[in-house]
Each structure stands twice: as C-alpha cells, then as structure tokens.
Specification:
Layout: E1 9-12, H1 18-27, E2 31-34, E3 39-42, H2 47-58, E4 63-66, H3 69-81, H4 85-92, E5 96-99, H5 102-110, H6 124-134, E6 140-144, H7 151-159, E7 163-167, E8 170-173, H8 179-189, E9 195-198, H9 201-211, H10 215-223, E10 227-230, H11 233-240, E11 246-247, H12 254-264, E12 270-274, E13 277-281, E14 285-288, E15 291-294, H13 297-308, H14 316-322, H15 329-343, E16 349-352, E17 356-359
Parallel strand pairs: 1-2, 1-9, 4-5, 4-6, 6-7, 9-10, 10-11
Antiparallel strand pairs: 3-8, 12-13, 13-14, 14-15, 16-17
Helix pairs in contact: 3-4, 3-5, 8-9, 9-11, 13-15, 14-15
Length: 362
C-alpha cells in the first residue's frame, strides 16, 4: 500500500495554511478534519502599530527581532500605506537583524534588508540569550511580535539594559465559525482521530480552551491514543508543559511535519494474524493482507477490543462497553456483522455460542 497514511484521520488546527497542510496529508492517503483553532487579524490600521512605527523612526533601533514572515510583511505593507515604508526600511537597514526562522528571514531579504543571525531552535528564548551574551545595555530593540505579547522576553532584555519597542502587527482571534473546532474536540475526546497537527502554540492553547470542562479528557487522549504533532519546539511547549508527548520535526516546516506524521503513525498500529490473514489496525480502517478495508466507528471499536487479546472470548457486555454511548446488545451484534462484511473475511471473527466473540488465531 503506497499511501502511507491511508486509514488514518488527522485533525488540522491551522488557519492560514490549512489547505496546504491538508493537501500534503491527503496526498498520502489521510482523511483530514479541518478545524481552525484561531485566525490572524491584521492590524494595519491599528493605533499601536502606527505608534510603534513612529517610535522606531524617532529612535532608530540598534537591533531588530523579526519573529515571523507574515508579521514583517504586514508591518512594511502598513508602513507603505502611511507613506513611511522608505524611512522605516532605512532605519531597519542600519540595525543588527535577528530572524527567528526562515520565513522571517525570507521576508527580511525580500524587503532588501540583511539578517545577521538566526537561532537553531527558532525559539525566542534562544534569541534573548544570544542578544544578552552579545550585550544590549543602552540599546534600542524593535521586537516584532507574533500574535501576542512576549512579556518574559521583553522583561529579560529590559533587565539587561535595553529599551524594547514592541511592534504588534497582528493578533490572534477566535475562528469565525467555532463549530469545526468543537467538533474536533469531540473527536479527540472520543479518540476518533489518530493525530492532531499544531502550527502555533496559541492554536494548541485554543484547542484546550475550547475543550472547557473536558480539557482533562482531551489531554488524556493526547497523552495516549491521539498523536499530537507540532511543527516545532516552540509550538509544542504548551502541550509539553501539560505532560503531552509530542512528535515534532527538527526543522519547523510543513513538509517536515508531514514526514514526521508519516514516520510516527504507522508505528502506533497493531498487527495480528487471525484465521490465516494478516491484519493491521489503523484509525478508521484495517489493512487485511495489504488491502485497506475502511470501517465505521462501531465495527472498528469491536475490532480494537478483540485485538487487544487475540483468541480470547469477549462477551457482548464487554464489547458493549467499547461501543459509543447509548448502544445496546443488539448494536453489538450489528457491529460484529458489519465488521465481518467490512473485513471481507468472515472467518476472522468467530462466534462462541452463549459466550461472545473472539478473533480466530488458530
């Protein structure tokens, strides 16, 4: 089977690049659930951004911290609208420019500016450490913010003797339609997705806020059955702080994120031999002798329960507990029938009269 992610369902919490990420995952066979956790609201007409720009012109910065590509482009576009683009480029062109990652570096170079240093980790903390080692006492630092204020970074630089001009280019806001995000919360809590992708730390925080009183249930799912995959270490921090293991590439790129998922998800599958067939359990499908067999949630739940102890008989009552709420014993019989039909190998699931069902392992 050439589609490495066939049979898996993956939630995408990104907004701006959701279609690109979804296409990369779908190209590898995944079923994708789009659920933007946040949206970016530009602040081109915002008084704070204009005031910060004026402050940079009045007191040219010795250091520029360029944190995001979209932020730097937005700042320069806003300055263009105010007739301040050339004066702003002129003062920034004399600064020592630190770019937090490749997108910010690309935006700086596209503007005709030159960057001098970037952190390996793409972390603001590493930028602050570098600047403090270099020495910032008496210097002015223009810090282009990425969505939210960074009080810890600002305070550390100010304590080292710098004057920090915070430049708020955009802010995070709730999604226009919150329904997809709440639906994703339901799917994570019910362990009906195999992975959730995050491309920003605020998106991870937003998913947990949307969970409300089910936050711990969602965290437990992310600590176990549902893979949390983050584009980089900075994005992963809110989840790691809550004890969630995270899969993240060494370089913060969407392509690398997808490759990490391709590497990780198949390792989490269960493979068993039953009635002479090789079965691999994926998120919403079983691979039977190399052929993908998509299954509905109830039959898949029965298969997972039986596969935990192959050959052991599970009663209808035991299997009932594996089904969605509100099911009855008749629903177990229906789920078993649909499982046999979906697998197209009826002998794999054996009925043991008056006792229940088991996977035939002989």
């Amino acid at each position: 089977m050439r589609e490495e992610l066939a049979g898996f369902t993956i939630g995408v919490t990104a907004d701006r690049r959701r279609d690109e990420l979804a296409a990369l995952l779908q190209r590898r066979g995944a079923r994708v659930v789009l659920a933007p956790a946040l949206r970016i609201v530009p602040l081109a007409d915002d008084t704070e951004l204009r005031d910060a720009t004026r402050a940079c012109l009045d007191r040219p910065p010795d250091i520029l911290m360029a944190n995001t590509g979209i932020g730097m482009r937005g700042w320069l576009e806003a300055a263009e609208g105010w007739g301040l683009a050339e004066p702003l480029r002129s003062v920034l062109g004399r600064a020592y420019v630190v770019t937090r990652g490749p997108k910010a570096r690309g935006a700086i170079r596209a503007a005709g500016l030159h960057d001098q240093w970037s952190p390996d980790s793409e972390s603001c903390d590493e930028v602050v450490r570098h600047l403090c080692r270099r020495g910032v006492a008496g210097q002015v630092i223009a810090m282009q913010l990425h969505g939210e204020r960074q009080p810890e970074c600002t305070l550390a630089l100010e304590e080292a003797g710098a004057t920090v001009i915070e430049v708020p280019v955009y802010r995070w806001a709730p999604p226009t339609d919150p329904a997809p995000l709440h639906r994703l919360v339901d799917l994570v809590a019910g362990r009906l997705v195999d992975a959730v992708t995050f491309t920003s730390a605020p998106a991870a925080e937003a998913l947990l806020r949307a969970a409300g009183d089910r936050t711990e249930t969602v965290l437990e799912a992310l600590r176990g059955d549902v893979l949390a995959s983050c584009v980089g270490a900075v994005t992963a921090e809110p989840l790691l702080r809550r004890g969630v293991p995270v899969a993240a590439p060494s370089r913060a790129r969407l392509g690398a994120l997808v490759r990490t998922i391709v590497d990780e998800l198949p390792r989490r599958t269960t493979t068993i031999k039953a009635a002479g067939h090789l079965l691999t359990l994926r998120g919403h499908a079983a691979v039977v002798d190399g052929e993908l067999r998509p299954l509905a949630p109830a039959p898949m739940a029965v298969l997972r329960a039986l596969a935990q102890t192959p050959g052991r008989v599970l009663s209808r009552t035991s299997l009932l507990r594996a089904l969605p709420r509100g099911a009855d014993e008749h629903a177990v019989e229906m789920a078993v029938a649909r499982l046999r039909a979906g697998l197209k190998t009826p002998r794999v699931v054996q009925t043991v009269v008056k006792r229940g069902y088991r996977l035939r392992v002989d």
